[in-house]
Design goal:
two-stranded parallel sheet, 6 helices, 131 residues, single chain, mainly alpha, elongated
């Protein structure tokens, strides 16, 4: 547990913006804004809103930090395609390889995560072969 917390804190130091502003924390903050308006009308429930928001933000930071840990490993699956003639076939082959990799649960949305965490775009994975 302590090492997981240390990993989260080190990931926060490396890229705080991407970890803080992920879809789960953004949703939690939007829900908190709406619930705060409702609580203001009734004059109660502020503590509950604070606890719900805090829980969603902590869960969002934790999940995003674990994605960063996954993409820091020395070996991650990278599909590479060698383009010989038809670029459309190369793109279809690359998409098929991504589909195979994404069947494993921990690599969901692998193509976008490679671009987000490692700055590897789809075109970087297609190499030209010249005769």
């Amino acid at each position: 547990m302590l090492t997981s917390l240390q990993n989260v804190l080190s990931n926060l130091r490396q890229s705080p913006y991407n970890i803080f502003f992920n879809p789960l924390t953004n949703t939690g903050l939007a829900i908190a804004a709406i619930l705060a308006l409702i609580a203001d009308q009734f004059g109660q429930g502020y503590y509950l809103i604070f606890l719900i928001t805090l829980a969603l933000v902590i869960i969002g930071i934790w999940r995003e930090s674990q994605k960063y840990d996954l993409y820091k490993h020395q070996a991650i699956p990278l599909p590479i395609v060698i383009k010989i003639a038809n670029p459309a076939d190369s793109n279809k082959a690359l998409q098929s390889l991504f589909n195979i990799i994404e069947t494993e649960n921990k690599y969901k949305d692998h193509k976008n995560n490679l671009d987000k965490y490692l700055n590897i775009s789809e075109t970087d994975l297609i190499f030209n072969y010249f005769l």
